[in-house]
Each structure stands twice: as C-alpha cells, then as structure tokens.
Amino acid sequence: MQAWIQKILQPIADKYYLKDIQQIVQTTSPIQSVSYPRLFYNLQYCCQTLHITDIPTIYVTPHIAGINALSVSYQKETLILLSPQATTLTDIEQRFILGHELGHCQQGNLVAHIVLGLLDSINNLSESVGPLIEDAVNVPLKNWFRSTEFEADKAGYLCAPDINMVHTLFTKLGMKEQITAFESYAEIDATHPLLLTRYDELKKHIAL
In sequence order, what are the residues at sequence separation of 6 or more whose Cβ sits closer than 8 angstroms to the Cβ of residue 195? Predict the structure, then answer.
C-alpha cells in the first residue's frame, strides 16, 4: 500500500471503526473447530493453499450483514469478520470468500479495506463518516481499491477453482447478468467493482 493512502485512511479507521471492532472482539467468541468445524477446516485449507502461516482469527458477527466477510487489522493481529449467513454457504463457496479475504491480507491493504469495507458492511454508522470518506477518497484511490478486489478474487479462485461456483455465488450476492450504461458509468466513482465486472475479470485471468 502506498504510504500516502495509509496516512489518509489510518486516522479515519482509528477514529470511527476501532470501537466497532473492539465491541465485536469483546462480545463475540472466535470460531473454533468445535463451534464451526466446516468453517474452521476451510480456513485452514485456504491458508495452506495460499502459504499463509499466520492464520487469522475469525469472528462470526451479526454486525456484518448479508453474505459477507471483512478482513481487518486489530492490535497487530489479523481478523476476519464473517456474517452469520456466510456460514451457511457450501464448503467451496466458503473457501472462495475466505480466500478472497486472505488475498486482501496478503496485499497488505487492510486499512483501506477496513474504511471502505466497513462503510458498506457495519450497521448504524455515524452519518458524519460519509463526507469524510468522500473528502479523502478520490477517483484514483477508488480505482486502486477496485483493483485490489480483482487481485483478492484471484486468491479466492486459487482456494476454490470452480468458475461455475463463482457465478452461482456472485448470483447469490446479487450479480446481474447485464449492466446498464448508467451502472457502468457509476462504477467509475464506486469503491467496489460490480459483481459482473469482478466475474468477467476473473474469467479473463483464468483464460490467460
């Protein structure tokens, strides 16, 4: 991650999201092989596939909505926050999502991932956060962040090499088979690429 990105986003992450993460850690037990055996095994599998020896701790929390996951850095430890709905996915779907998050960890972009990811995922955020983000995050930074999503998808695919499964999973997440010209234009100023764009980029990568 470029130093200037870190400099811009770290104070925002510390000021607005540290308490959210603290609350999750203090009120939720990390998953174990007994409590979530499938999820625990799939995390181990993904870490082995991606050659990650420092295995993150996973918390399943209702603070993450829908089918979703988010990797964060907290007190020099990497955590993955997972929504309850994500625990109901098939093994290979879980591996893709976990591999995606581990891909973010490997890229070292967790500060940006925290700020921009929690902006969409954590419930009941202060309304004052939005303008601060918009002031700090310009189009080049958003372009950079979208590119990290494509790279994280490649890590997810290494853990779950089934493009048909990715299509099914992205459809569950709300992927549309076609996008309008307006949606394509709006994507330029978005922090996350459209699911169809991510799917198409992953197919291009596989075809190389």
Answer: 170, 173, 174, 175, 176
Sign of CA dihedral 38, 161, 80, 76: positive
| CA–CA dist 142, 138 (Å, integer) | 6
Task: Judge whether residue 64 has pLDDT over 70.
Answer: yes
List CB contacts of 53: < 8 A, sequence separation 6 or more: 47
Residues 6+ apart with CB under 8 A from 122: 17, 20, 63, 64
Rg (CA), the chain: 16
Separation of alpha carbons 206 and 208, rounded Å: 6
Higher pLDDT, 118 or 163: 163
Burial class (CB in 10 A: 0-12, 13-18, 19+), 56: buried
Q: What is the mean pLDDT of the chain?
A: 84
3-state SS, 28-93, equals: CCCCCCCCCHHHHHHHHHHHHHCCCCCCCEEEECCCECCCCEEEEEECCEEEEEECHHHHHCCHHH
Which residues lie below 8 Å from residue 68, measured CB to CB, with a gap of 6+?
82, 83, 85, 86, 121
Q: pLDDT at residue 108 above 90?
A: no
pTM of the model: 0.84
